[in-house]
Design brief:
Elements (H helix, E strand, L loop, with lengths): L2 H24 L37 E3 L6 E3 H19 L5
Antiparallel strand pairs: 1-2
Length: 99
């Protein structure tokens, strides 16, 4: 609940990412971070960012929303996970550069 708690939380995630990258490289596995920007707002069905999607800090309490473009019902976290997975799969489809 303090600024210090946020910095400790950020440091923990940074350490986790660093260790994950290190372990992946050691096993000759490709490691690449995916930008999660707008992943909760983008409809995982139609790919649009509709007006009905939750936006900003004020909308963090909104856990479910309905896309007014295609009518799909989304859980905020599940929708974001689907969008991040799709971004990773698109990256794999482009091809992995030889090391």
């Amino acid at each position: 609940q303090t600024r210090m708690a946020k910095s400790v939380h950020d440091a923990a995630w940074t350490t986790f990412r660093t260790q994950l990258k290190y372990k992946a490289m050691r096993q000759c596995v490709v490691f690449e971070e995916i930008n999660e920007a707008f992943s909760t707002q983008t409809c995982s069905c139609c790919g649009e960012i509709p007006n009905s999607s939750p936006k900003g800090r004020a909308s963090l309490r909104i856990r479910e929303w309905i896309c007014n473009e295609c009518g799909a019902v989304h859980d905020r976290d599940t929708n974001a996970a689907k969008n991040i997975l799709a971004a990773g799969l698109r990256r794999l489809a482009e091809g992995i550069p030889a090391l």
